[in-house]
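Researcher: Here's the sequence for the chain we discussed earlier.
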Amino acid sequence: MSQFETVIGLEVHAQLKTDSKIFCGCSTQYGAPPNTNICPVCTGQPGVLPVLNRKAVSFLVTTGLALGCSINPRSLFARKQYFYPDLPKNYQISQYELPLAERGCVDIVVAGETKRIRVHRIHLEEDAGKLLHAIGARTLDYSLVDLNRTGVPLMEIVSEPDLRSPEEAVAYLTKLKSILEYLGVSDCDMEEGKFRCDANVSIRPVGQKELGTKAEIKNMNSFSGVRDAIAYEVERQKNIIASGGKIVQETRLWNADTKESHSMRSKEEAHDYRYFPDPDLVPIELDERYLDSLRKELPELPEARCARLVGVLGLSAYDAGVITAEKALADYYEEALKTAGGEPHGKTTTPDAAETSAAKMLANWTITELIGRLNTAGKTIVQSPVVPQHLGRLVFLVRTGALSGKMGKTVIEEMFISGRPPEEIIKEKGLVQISDETAIGKLCDEALTESPKAIEEYKAGKERALGALVGLVMKKSKGQANPAAVNKILKEKLS
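Model: Thanks. This is the structure I predict for it:
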């Protein structure tokens, strides 16, 4: 089956970060008791009229501008007809023929190569409610409906079928999620259903331009779930074709526990939904002045921020990429840089050696020491017990020689447990580094007096003898002597 290639298109649904729902004043708060954030409008009672949330429109247009989309100056809402228990009106207010944004792109990097994924359209719609299935010992007993989510503003970002592997799909989602977080238009919390996607997967002979019959995979709530579901679907379709079968267009549900998908229903076409313009909502009309105001408010996006950390602060492309992949982490790093001795956001001139040293050392401590501990503890950077000012101060102490790197690791371990500032921990544990050359010289003299054999070995060309002497001095100082100063003074005395 190596003569077949995979074709993937993704439909991403991101809940917009508004205080109220798209067509009423109900709260969008997540986790409220079931059916408390509802009103006659979002529950579809007879005689009610929707009123459009202006912020939802600006968030979607901002996203379209950031992705290089063409913004349609005139856009319409339509009714998408279908019955489902969590959609009380029996139709969803969405956009069909005239979406707000079209023809954008997202650049991804996979295996060191950059690839451009085209965005077909971005449209605005209302979210549906949530079904809670209660399963008995043998059969499905009943389902409960929570309508709190009904009417939450939803942005659907539809890609072109440009993706060719599960890895590319995950890279696209990761990049898109990062951009939305930088824009501040969505929380993108996948566990809370605020960032979710459906994958349209098909295979076709290599070189064939016509698309194969696709299956839509739903119910994926993690990047690993997306990767596994797509990989499973590709193999399923290849096995069907290899055995002489025919792929049918359908919607399938992914089961993360069994790592299998199951048929849900035959896939509907657009005409099955009987779209028609919503008579209760006037067309959206956007003038150029409004669009210009949103363009001017666009923040620094991940790629630009990464380039600045590389070009201005001298970070490696890898370190800058890790730090800027998540807005909260990049914000944390730049706040910590203020106390580490580097330059925060906004500097455009070439930094001096000290500033570059601070930036690079802070990047290393952030990625290796802090993120490593956060991952082990299952925490995010927002939940970090070590505040950025404290991490920056710790790096400053290590960089200026007041604290050794080994001592610093002891201090950050305590900082992670207690959240206390480094100076307080250093004072309590007596971890101040000895840098006074006179004091270190005396310790070196003692070590040399006690180690005549090491002196002979060093003079005979055995460099490891110097390491033994350094170790003895560090032991005498209880690990507090500056290692660089110890090396320097020992070499001077030995010569």
